[in-house]
């Protein structure tokens, strides 16, 4: 009996210890979410939460003008407009440097979000001439990254403004990236992503995608510029994301808070469904412990203009692409074209391909860009026309 009682006491103590540990983990996670844990965050600016896109657009002497969806898709009675996303595609050159782990993953990225990049390069531990994939050492190592980025720098120097580094488990919205960085000078060193803590400094974790301006890439190139440098120079860390952070730290280039003005994440290290459903991220995940700038779980997890999600299998990449660029929701519209009889011309238009190849590449935003001077002159014409109508009505009612 005494032996049985001692065992029960030990079991009770063990259960209490386990319960206390779980309770402590829950409290610690909440503490990480709500309290500024480390003073190192205060060293970094939060100025990149809200890009000055509209101000940048005004400096281009342009303004946005809404286009009803049915006009863009079916009407042929207007000149082809300059779409906002097309303008950004031409003026904000993005190179996508993608590390792949499998042939299926590489093919899925190529057929989905890589189409929206200006330049695409694939690197992996295998050769695939069809995609194509260039072989490098382990894709998570700095040596593999070094071979890849020096190759890209030599081949495409002067042809890009920004580089996004991601893998084949990532889905990236390149249009949102262009919108985010449009107002920034890419010649300056910018280092964007999801910052995590590493002892006394921060670096952007590779799983959420890393964005470098050409200014930052030139700093990396000043240290590692040849294949021999990649092979023989000892990197700060075996992992490429940590090494990038440490090298740029030596040049006083640091990660910044890339959340939006509502503190919702732009660079997300998990799939969208994991971020959306509270409790999906384990309480023991390093995400809570190391993330420098946390976002809420649930519907407020992610920015409306999120740039990356990570942890997606090839099938999910195709699903994301379909939902983003091909699924259309029927809406009411300014023109009310659905309330008018269908003409023979409308029928022929419906049978035509409704979206141009350029729009397939950059998505289908229903906003055009127009010259601000044209808007001003057009507004003056409208005011004069309205004034004339009012004067005519006045004269008819009261005489001249």
From TrEMBL:
It is found in: Membrane. Keywords: Membrane, Signal-anchor, Transmembrane, Transmembrane helix. One of its GO terms (cellular component) is membrane. The chain crosses the membrane at residues 12-31. Belongs to the glycosyltransferase 31 family. Beta3-Gal-T subfamily. GO terms for molecular function: glycoprotein-N-acetylgalactosamine 3-beta-galactosyltransferase activity. The keyword Transmembrane helix applies. This is Glycoprotein-N-acetylgalactosamine 3-beta-galactosyltransferase 1. The keyword rRNA processing does not apply. It is a single-pass type II membrane protein.
